[in-house]
Amino acid sequence: MAPITEVEGRRVALSNLEKVLYPASGFTKGELLHYYATAAGVLLPHLRDRAVSFLRYPDGPDGQLFFTKNVPPGTPDWVTTAEVPRSEGPARMVLVQDLPSLMWAANLVTEFHTHQWTADDPGEADRLVFDLDPGPPATVVQCCEVAQWLRERLAADGIEAYAKTSGAKGLHLLAGVRGASSERVSEYAKALAVEAERALPRLVVHRMTRSLRPGKVFVDWSQNAARKTTAAPYTVRAREVPAVSTPVTWDEVAGCRRADEFVFRAADVGARVEEDGDLLAPLLDPERAAELPR
Q1: Would you state the pLDDT for residue 1?
Q2: Which of 34, 151, 167, 213 is the most exposed place for a label (fewest CB within 10 A)?
Q3: Calpha distance 180→123 (Å, rounded)
Q4: In Å, how far are 51, 91, 93 from 226, measured between CA atoms?
């Protein structure tokens, strides 16, 4: 029987704590749960009020991976859920609102993925995102070059961008927006991706076609679609090592010369947060969100 831990007055079953999830480093499920408990202060604000999709990997990254979008069977009744629109009809999804809910979800062994809108207003996007995905031999180093171009282009439209590692091989750019639907944000993001390809033709591609991507950075604008989700800040990824989708400064982006410089593991994040706080905190301030140009 799984041991029961009390978390802020809620009883949470935490199981298989000694199980090794990441064989390359010996990182255990207990260490994963410890990471989420200590990162909760910066992670929870980016999850709160957002319908969460779980990318589960209960046997580690080498085992089966599967998405869970609907409320999982056995979800405690104290976990907040919300009805959200989908093309096939309304569905009910989890909202990770507090530490007990986070620890319950983390015990499922999951990546956290969120939409670019909140559950109380799914018709309006409050985030713009670019997923910069390098096609080998390109790496995150080339993603950083593209990110700087996009940052300047967004700034020309009065939009402030922030960067984080994807936790895999690329980089994510995020910005706070307001007053636009997901469809409108997608149109704008696609236009900038096309513009980036024209400005940096040897470096950028805006289409997903595999044959076009070797040696270039795919600027994925499509994750702004209302139905899509993106890995949340501070989530641990199901990769060979317990890498975290970690906010980075623009100085770090400008100075990136090797791909390994942008691999941050769960053990690295605490010191970064202690020194810099949450580098994505401005995204949580609605007063700093920008309107898209007409």
Answers
A1: 60
A2: 34
A3: 8
A4: 12, 14, 15
